[in-house]
Design goal:
- The chain starts with 6 loop residues before the first strand and ends with a strand.
- A hairpin with a 2-residue loop joins strand 7 and strand 8.
- It has an eight-stranded mixed barrel with strand order 3-4-5-6-9-10-8-7.
- The protein has three helices and ten strands.
- The protein has two domains: 44 residues, no CATH class; 122 residues, Sortase, Chain: A (Beta Barrel).
- The chain has 193 residues and is mostly beta strands.
């Protein structure tokens, strides 16, 4: 028997018990949560864990907008890769992921890009080798935007402040670390020149 596909929309302001009861009562396979900001829905991201034993729904990869990043080049570590919208596992199989809701190339704010270091092409395998002053070029179509590395750190996976907004145009590159262990994250920040 094929499970029915249904979408249940609830406001993020609804209490967790209300959300869970609406979600499980109808055996919904997708839950649409609407809110005023990304911060409002961060707590709702893990609702998919409530569906045990069911296959997750197919992931639709968003189409990049006209200003979205499309390619990244990091000469110091021999990276030249496509950038895709989103950073879910299926999207990271295709290239470097642009964190949805983060800035676009050249814009004021934090453009967050992530990629794997030990699977799916190991695009950011050598990210930890970057040094202050190294160049990162991010393209939006054919338009290049040049960034220079200003900071590098190793953080816990729960250290989400690195995803936060900034007042300057920067890019934050993130990958797992150390290689094949992945207990931490390498975070490289570079400022637009």
């Amino acid at each position: 028997m094929t499970p029915r596909i249904a979408i249940q929309a609830v406001p993020v302001t609804a209490g967790l018990d209300d959300v869970l009861s609406r979600f499980t009562a109808g055996r919904h396979h997708r839950l649409l949560v609407y809110a005023d900001s990304l911060d409002d829905i961060l707590g709702a991201v893990h609702l998919r864990d409530l569906i045990e034993g069911e296959s997750p729904p197919a992931i639709t990869i968003p189409t990049p907008g006209p200003e979205a990043p499309t390619r990244i080049s990091i000469p110091a570590i021999n990276v030249d890769a496509l950038v895709v919208e989103g950073d879910l596992p299926e999207q990271l199989k295709l290239g470097v992921g642009h964190y949805l809701g983060s800035a676009n190339p050249g814009e004021r704010g934090n453009m967050v890009l992530s990629a794997h270091d030990d699977i799916y092409g190991e695009i950011f395998r050598r990210l930890h080798e970057l040094e202050l002053g190294d160049e990162i070029v991010v393209y939006a179509g054919k338009q290049p935007y040049r960034y220079l590395v200003t900071a590098k750190q190793i953080v816990e996976p729960t250290e989400v402040r690195v995803l936060g907004a900034t007042t300057k145009p920067v890019t934050t590159l993130i990958t797992c670390y150390p290689y094949m262990v992945d207990t931490h994250r390498v975070v490289v920040v570079a400022e637009l020149q």
